[in-house]
Amino acid sequence: MRASDEEHYTEYVTTRLPALRRVAYLLCGDSHRADDIVQNAITRLYVHWRKAQSADNLDAYVRTTVVRTFLNEQRTGWFSRTRVVDEPPEGMVRDRDVETSHVLHAALRRVPPRQRAVLVLRFLYDMSVTEVAGALRCSEGNVKSQTSHGLATLRKQLGEHTLSLLGGR
């Protein structure tokens, strides 16, 4: 990699690291594992930096790399499924009630990984069905189905907390 490319890569990764950690944390629910996912993703990004720079939307390209890294990790199963109580990365809990945030994150962790990825991309990153389908390399129908099943699972996990999370609706 040329020195100027490496400088641009370093600058980009440095500024985007907190956002990448947030998406990884939302996917896996463990800040240490999120760091591992991000590390693997930015290593892949380094290898493919020239291609990544030519992408129409670099942030979307890198976010997709993080999601695919998470999903690949889920398939290979190298990580430990033991969960330790973990705090979200800095900046993750904003104006929301802390208890509500913990309940929501715990419920999201119990949604199957592919559905979780779809929910995070669709609702937290406001990506369209078409964009998510492209990021996950699947059909739009699959994204719609995963969204429906993921929301149903999330509602089931939340149970009594659903009304309070939705503002009493």
From TrEMBL:
InterPro entries: RNA_pol_sigma-70-like, RNA_pol_sigma-70_dom, RNA_pol_sigma-E_actinobac, RNA_pol_sigma70_r2, RNA_pol_sigma70_r4_t2, RNA_pol_sigma_r2, RNA_pol_sigma_r3/r4-like, WH-like_DNA-bd_sf. Residues 103-154 form the RNA polymerase sigma factor 70 region 4 type domain. Pfam families: Sigma70_r2, Sigma70_r4_2. Residues 14-76 form the RNA polymerase sigma-70 region domain. GO terms for molecular function: DNA binding; sigma factor activity. One of its GO terms (biological process) is DNA-templated transcription initiation. Belongs to the sigma-70 factor family. ECF subfamily. This is RNA polymerase sigma-70 factor, sigma-E family. The lineage of its organism: Bacteria, Bacillati, Actinomycetota, Actinomycetes, Pseudonocardiales.
